[in-house]
Amino acid sequence: MPFINTKTTLPLDVSKKETLSDGLAQIAKDCLGKSENWLMTGFEEKADIYFRKTWTAAAYIEVKLCGHADSAAFSQMTEKICSLYEKELGLPGERIYVSYFPTPDWGWNGKNF
Predict the structure, then answer these.
(1) How far is 83 from 66, CA to CA, in rounded Å?
(2) For residue 51, with 0-12 CB atoms within 10 Å meaning exposed, 13-18 middle and 19 or more buried, which class applies?
(3) Which domains are delineated in the chain?
(4) How many CB atoms lie within 10 A of CB 91?
(5) What is the pLDDT of residue 113?
(6) What is the dihedral of CA 64, 67, 72, 77, to 10 degrees?
(7) Which InterPro entries would you find in this protein's record (predicted)?
(8) Rounded-to-integer distance, Cα 99 and Cα 3, Å
(9) Displacement of CA 72 from its chain's centroid (Å)
């Protein structure tokens, strides 16, 4: 049940969002053991992000998930997310922040897991 939200300075068409969503689904499966059936992605494009004293292309990615994963899984996930965004958007990893928000409380369909 991860929600992976991307905020980026770049414009993203629907096709690119779908490609990124597919890649993120595979990463969530590989690193967290989470099924793509429960993955939700969000995209905030053309965001104003000032990073390292420039307005150059950048991204901030939040990974929110029910439960917890160990630091090694998060580290592996960061590496794969940065590689995906570099491949698909030409955005180098040095222009990307990835943050993780595990929680024991997660609601769906009127109740909590």
Answers:
(1) 24
(2) middle
(3) 3-108 (3.30.429.10)
(4) 20
(5) 84
(6) -30
(7) Macrophage_inhib_fac
(8) 12
(9) 17
Residue 35: the pLDDT is 87
Residue-wise pLDDT tens digits, 12-42:
999 999 999 999 999 999 999 998 889 999 9
CA–CA separation, 110 and 73 (whole Å): 30
- Tokens of residue 36, six digits: 């793509």
Concatenated DSSP letters for the chain? --EEEEEESS---HHHHHHHHHHHHHHHHHHH---GGG-EEEEE-S----BTTB-SS-EEEEEEEEB---HHHHHHHHHHHHHHHHHHH---GGGEEEEEEEES--EETTEE-
Q: Tokens 């770049």 belong to which residue? A: 10
